[in-house]
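Table S7 (text form). Paired inputs.
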Amino acid sequence: MGRMIIALVFAVTALQAYPEFQKFSQTHSRRTVNCGMCHASPEGPDGLSFGQVGSLDSVQMDLLKEARRAQRPGMEVSNPILNPFGNKLVQVMGVRLLVDAKKDPAMLHYYLKDAGDMDGDGVTDAQEFLDGTNPNNRHHGDPLALLLTNVQHHFFEIVMILLATAAGMFGLSNLLLAFAAGGKKP
């Protein structure tokens, strides 16, 4: 009886997993993308490990059911098998639009374009979906975009370091010139 319930849960969960999004992101970005972009577990929602349906207690199962009822955009969810980005997708699009987007996964980019930047790395969540990078991790993204963002965020510190280095080099060169001039006899 217990195995039959677990099998039923896995069958229902398979209807809630959207590998089309992973495949689209992976194909578009040419990067390896796992289920961890949206799910709490990189292996996806099915299984018995942390963040998978088989590991949920009764309270978490209630949260899962509630999240699956979030059909319209704008509904806040706390789905225990999704990570913050996955929950944001449900909030921005609603379950109904997410299911429709399985036919055209590029729709996620369209709906996310104004949804911001969860991890604050300067790369929008929509772009991270296209780039196949993790929108939950501010250290994971296109290297050039992250470099430019960090230069913008730390511009003052970079200028101060360059000025301090230039002043130090100026002082050191004058000190060495003074030592050289002090060693000469007229």
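Next pair, protein 2 of 2.
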Amino acid sequence: MKSFGKLIAFLCVLAFVSPALASDKIVIDGSTTVGPIAKAFAEYYMSQNPDVNVTVSESGSGNGAKSLINSACDIADMSRFMKDKEFAAAVENGVLPVAHVVAMDGLPILVHPSNPVDELTVEQVRNIYLGKIKNWKELGGPDMKIIMISRDTNSGTYETFETKVMEKEKIAEGAEYVGSNGAVRQRVQSTPAAIGYAGLGFVDDTVKALRIDGIEPTPLTVASGKYPISRPLFMFTNNYPKLGSHLHAFISLYLSPKGQEIIETIGFVPVTQY
């Protein structure tokens, strides 16, 4: 009990003396989904505060968590919530992760624009990735073998798909794994037989986002929770940033009108949109 009390006291002290909070440098690492938000925030924040340097790396949600655990970054971008084992490892290292939900996102299921299939159910998508449905003709499409594109297993996007679509079942052998949402889009846009999934902000006219269970992936359906593959996007900090610090001002951007405008422009959904 005494050791637990000492740990809490130590973490409380960190909230006030952490050098990162007083720094004119903000280091961000993690999710490739949240990355565009972080980069846009960084560009805007540095334009308003020329003395501050904000760097953004996109190594995946899992690596973002590791960076925060090891005090290698000030903000960990994550497209999923931090796992219990990650939180425990952080506390053991004297880091107390605090989650900030900066935006909402959906995971559109993407196909090539030439594919006549417009709608699938969650169950059909799961059966494709389980290898039970192998050809587009089984779904009313052309006679083409389906090419499955997936995010890498260290990705928070992958874990959302694994939970909400696959129900923790293993993706079939033969799926192609790529390292970013942009790479998923690129692979689908160049491959008529492909199917993939990516964040809402990565949908453009080079790919087609399917209706899932009759619901289109739009900001409104994501914000309302009607689209079945929706999720919050996070930025994690070590403790709640010191009020008045650059880190606090940066992490609070998503609540400002400018921050909400940036999030909307990129293609994600502000948390203030209901």
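The first helix runs from residue 2 to 17.
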